[in-house]
Amino acid sequence: MAQHLKIDLSKPRYDSSTFTGRYRHFCQLTNPLYALKSNKDLDQAKEIVKCYEKNGVIPKGGEEVLWNAKYVYGSAFHPETGEKQNVLGRMSFQVPGGMIITGILLAFYKTPIEIFLGQFLNQSFNALVNFTNRSGDKPLPTSTIMTAYVSATSSATITAIGLRSLVKKAPPIVGRFIPFTAVAAANMVNIPLMRQTELSEGIVITDEHGNKLGQSSLAARHAIAQVTFSRILMAAPGMLFTPIIMNSLEKKPFMRNVGKVGNCAIQTLLVGMFLLNMVPIACALFPQQQSIAVNQLESDLCSRIREKHPHLDVVYYNKGL
Q1: 119 to each of 5, 251, 310, how far by Cα in Å?
Q2: Count of C-beta atoms within a 10 Å radius of residue 261
Q3: Sheet holding 203-206, edge to edge
Q4: Phi, then psi, of 4 in degrees rounded to 5
Q5: pTM for the full model?
Q6: How far is Cα 1 from Cα 4, in angstroms, rounded to an integer?
Q7: Which of 5, 66, 76, 148 could form a disulfide with 193 if both were Cys (CB 3.0 to 4.6 A apart)?
Q8: What is the pLDDT of residues 66-109, one digit of tens each?
Q9: How far is CA 235 from the centre of its chain?
Q10: Distance (Å, rounded) from C-alpha 21 to C-alpha 231?
Q11: Is the dihedral of CA 20, 23, 27, 29 positive or negative?
């Protein structure tokens, strides 16, 4: 029997003003099990969501069925174009994709060719994710994606090879941390380049009701800094603690016959356990909708807002992911 509910599916299910609420939201959104959903399952979820949006009615099962369908639908379809996304670029594939690539980066890092191929694979995955989740209203030019891709791969490779030469005489455990340093360097190059239009033209600023007030490059810098920090934090535990664990495990007798592929598999599983929690934690670290005081904006933008809205003290912007 159909039920009539009053639920706003345009907003997250959980309280986005708290870290716990945001964490629960991103645990759902990045659930790796959603990457295993068949096309039939995805189309059924889409039908439930569209039916509710049109008629306000969902099948028997109530609110839980509706929200589950919403998250399954959101995990596979572009929020603006409505197109079904490539499974490798979906948010639900972030944990499986990240753990496989990170496992490779941690296992194969001792020669320049291993470093280059690892970073090439990592940035290829990042480029695919960026392309899959590009804006439907104002899509990223292919040239921007390729520039960020080449620059991030180059910076990560140069950083890793440079550090490798510096720590040759250091204990072996030190060399194990080089992949994380390279990934951090790549993020600091990749994200600003991918969002360079926001840095030059500004990010959209709105009032509390979503009415556009202008664009701010200053707010864009804040947003990009937060996203970059979150991406680095996302990778940190898996790429810093896994080498320590492996350094201890490799002293055990049973590890002698594992081989390099087996070693890589173990590291991949360890990284996966960290990423299961770190992906939603990093995404939830900062609220999606950020606020900034009007008097902290660029002077010309501040003046324009003051002129039209003299009593407005705080404005908002979407920091992105």
Answers
A1: 48, 28, 50
A2: 8
A3: 212-216, 203-206, 314-318, 289-293
A4: -100, 120
A5: 0.83
A6: 10
A7: 148
A8: 899 899 998 888 876 788 888 998 888 989 999 999 999 898 88
A9: 11
A10: 20
A11: positive
